[in-house]
Amino acid sequence: MNLQLARLHELTEELQLAGVETNATALAQQAAKEEWDYLQFLERVLQSEQAYRHQRKQVMFTRMAGFASLKSLEEFDFTFATGVPKKQVNELATLSFIERKENIVLLGPSGVGKIHIASALGYKAVQAGLKTRFISASDLILQLTTAQRQDKYKQVMQRSVLAPRLLIIDEIGYLPFSAQESKLLFDVIAKRYEKGAIILTSNLPFGQWGSIFANDTALTSAMLIEFYTTHILSKLKGRVIGSKRRNKPD
Ligand SMILES: Nc1ncnc2c1ncn2[C@@H]1O[C@H](COP(=O)(O)OP(=O)(O)OP(=O)(O)O)[C@@H](O)[C@H]1O
């Protein structure tokens, strides 16, 4: 390493400009070849740092999001899934629902692509630099009950529920909740209401949600009201391509 590169290395390390260090030599060569002026060179160097940071953020957010699997909308076959409204899904893929802090509910039988669509929208959000969290309803309840026991409810609520710009709660209704667990889930939905977007997936139509929430009709109605202004994709169907669970308990 020549002396100038060694000094550059020290400076970029101290100033935490890893993108500049990675790209400086190549950009200097390109600048000489294409006869950039000094300001042009400076701009390109700063752009390279910006791109480097954006990419690192995407990688970190993807890891932190906890997706069950990485899916994209490009991989989703709309001709196969006849009940999935392509136009509406593409509109949701613009992510304006996140800016507007709106919710999405995906309802349909097992294996029709609910997780696929939810994860694909989540992955798009992550790529756009929006903090996203994917969690199953039962894991979320487990986290919150543990937090309550350990007197850390507020912190966990803040970190896991309120901090992400998009919260994806998967598999509501796969297992029924106790009265206490139902209240926790309601607390999540109510606390995020108009503060951050949620995507919910469920195998059960709204009419059967009472059975998920310990037959508490007041709480179930309150929960449904929270989704009044939601984008509801409730007619998801099509040939089932695959499912994680073929033996759903009664
Ligand atoms: N229309 C589709 N095009 C491409 N792949 C699909 C489609 N529908 C489902 N799949 C694939 O089938 C598998 C099951 O889909 P997914 O897990 O999204 O279903 P689900 O409706 O969430 O089911 P469950 O309720 O059991 O969780 C996934 O690998 C998914 O990528």
Automatic annotation (TrEMBL):
Catalytically driven reaction(s): ATP + H2O = ADP + phosphate + H(+)
Domain AAA+ ATPase, first and last residues per copy: 100-231
SUPFAM superfamilies: P-loop containing nucleoside triphosphate hydrolases
Biological processes per GO annotation: DNA replication, synthesis of primer
Top-rank taxon: Bacteria
This protein's GO CC annotations: primosome complex
Record-level Gene Ontology MF annotations: ATP binding; DNA binding; hydrolase activity
Gene3D superfamilies: P-loop containing nucleotide triphosphate hydrolases
UniProt xrefs under InterPro entries: AAA+_ATPase (IPR003593), DNAC/IstB-like (IPR028350), IstB (IPR047661), IstB_ATP-bd (IPR002611), P-loop_NTPase (IPR027417)
Hydrolase recorded as keyword: yes
Pfam annotation, one family: IstB_IS21
Keyword annotations: ATP-binding, DNA replication, DNA-binding, Hydrolase, Nucleotide-binding, Primosome
Family in the record: Belongs to the IS21/IS1162 putative ATP-binding protein family.
Protein name, as recorded: Replicative helicase loader DnaC
Lineage: Bacteria, Pseudomonadati, Pseudomonadota, Gammaproteobacteria, Alteromonadales
